[in-house]
Amino acid sequence: MPIDAGTVTVGTAAVEIPVTCVMPFTLEIKNNDNTDDVYIGPSDVSTSTGLRLAKDERVEIGLSPLDRVYAIATKAGHTVSYLKFSKAC
To answer: Is the dihedral angle over the CA atoms 38, 42, 47, 49 positive or is it negative?
Structure first.
């Protein structure tokens, strides 16, 4: 099973988690910040509409090929890590 990993710097504007695949895949996202929350959701995600990930929290999401996930934070320089698990891409 191929695994892709990376880190994305997030700030006060929504940033796409840069993963794609032609097959369904699983995406795990971890909030790397040790004090503040990060929020994930669609391209228009905000700190009031997104799924909140508390400090050091992680979530696993099953996605289809055209799905995209975005992240936003309340400060600049925030980072999230991700792992993509797929059968083939």
So the answer is: negative
Give the number of other CB atoms < 10 A from CB of residue 9.
13
Strands (E), 1-89: 3-10, 15-16, 25-31, 38-41, 51-53, 58-63, 70-73, 78-86
Which of 62, 64, 81 has its CA nearest to residue 6? 81
What confidence tens digit (pLDDT) does each residue in 76-87 have?
999 999 999 987
Chain segment 7-46, per-residue pLDDT in tens = 999 999 999 999 988 889 999 999 999 899 999 999 999 9
Q: Closest Cα to residue 89, out of 26, 22, 27?
A: 22
User: pTM of the predicted model, to two decimals?
Assistant: 0.91
Instruction: Note the helical H segments in the chain.
Output: none
